[in-house]
Amino acid sequence: MAEVRPVTSVQGNKSSNSISWIAPVVCVLVGYAIWRGFLGNAANFAKAGDGWFWPDREGPISNLYKMYQGGIIVPILIGALLTVITFIIERFLTIAKAAGTGNNADFIRKVQYNLANKNVDAAIAECDKQKGSVGNVMKAGLHKYKELITNTELSTEQKVIAIQKEVEEATALELPQLEKNLVFLSTIASVATLMGLLGTVMGMIRSFSALGSDDGGSGAAGKLSQGISEALYNTALGIGTSAVSIIFYNIFTTKIDAITYGIDESGFTLTQSFASLYK
Q1: Cβ-based neighbours of 237, under 8 Å, separated by 6 or more
Q2: What is the DSSP string of 41-98?
Q3: Checking DSSP bridges between strand 45-48 and strand 57-60, what pairing results, if any?
Q4: CA gyration radius for the chain?
Q5: In the predicted model, what is the mean pLDDT of residues 164-185?
Q6: Bridge partners of residue 57, in order along the sequence
Q7: Which residues pair with 47 in a beta bridge?
Q8: 66 to each of 22, 63, 109, 111, how far by Cα in Å?
Q9: What is the pLDDT of residues 85-123, one digit of tens each?
């Protein structure tokens, strides 16, 4: 009995993913620059203290600049939001490319029609037009399909298994590219709210500490309300970042599920077509 040795015609993407880990660091640094250079600019406050990393600021001239007084967690949350935006753009571009140039259901029907007429070359041409993950997997399977038509050493069952393995190997190369970097969105969705709460707690601690050192009087309530307002900016920024992450994570997973379904359907199409036409 001849040995079935499937060799996939789809090459894996060996590009480094280091940029995915550099991006969050850069975004946090940019977040700090926005917090320190824009929100914390001395011109935006009535009273500006000394220091370069986290200088004291009092009397913001508008509510926007109160965000600076939310503390050192604020630039981290701004960086997290920028990271989310970065990976949303990256995933949109990648998944749009993976989806192909046309409707996957229509593409599979065209391939089925060509295979029913035993025109494998026309089916491969449709793959070249469609592109995307479904087109790539289908094309890999079709090359093996075409190769096995003239093979006289293997039984039909062995040929079907060989086609199925070819599709599985091609799928194994495509799926990681679809799911790549989604871990950042899911992680930030979970962590951003906690970071916001941490910033709020730290702000409340500072507020009550300042209140405790105050001699009392009408200024005490004002300081407390101001401190609470500043602390809640952390909560708002954390919840907002988390919400955006969750929404787009679900959007992307839904799109990936649709592509995965098309890949599964393409594999089923090839094996069923070969089993029925080349018994």
Answers
A1: 67, 70, 74, 77, 78, 81, 196, 199
A2: -GGGEEEE---SSS--EEEESSGGGGGGGG-THHHHHHHHHHHHHHHHHHHHHHHHHH
A3: antiparallel
A4: 29
A5: 90
A6: 48
A7: 58
A8: 30, 5, 59, 60
A9: 999 999 999 999 999 998 988 999 999 999 999 999 999
Residues 122, 124, 125, 126, CA torsion sign: positive
Three-state DSSP state, 193: helix
C-alpha torsion sign, points 69, 75, 76, 81: positive
The full length of the chain comes to 279
> How many Å apart are CA 172 and CA 174, to the nearest integer?
6
Name residue 4's amino acid.
Answer: V
> Are the C-beta atoms of residues 238 and 195 closer than 8 Å to each other?
yes
Distance of alpha carbon 165 from alpha carbon 244, whole angstroms: 39
Give one DSSP letter per residue of 83-98, joined into a string: HHHHHHHHHHHHHHHH
3 state SS of 48: strand
pLDDT of residue 48: 83
* Residue among 230, 208, 231, 206 at smallest CA distance from 221: 208
Q: With contact defined as beta carbons under 8 Å apart, do 174 and 140 qualify?
A: no
At residue 118, what is the residue type?
A: K
Distance between start and end Cα atoms, the chain: 18
Q: Which of 26, 21, 277, 3 is nearest to 156 (CA)?
A: 277
Confidence of residue 204 (pLDDT cuts 50, 70, 90): confident
* pLDDT level of residue 14 (50, 70, 90 thresholds): very low
Q: Using CA atoms, how far apart are residues 118 and 274, in angstroms rounded to an integer?
A: 10
Q: How far apart are CA 180 and CA 222, in angstroms?
A: 49
Q: In this predicted structure, what is the pLDDT of residue 6?
A: 42
d(CA 164, CA 159): 9
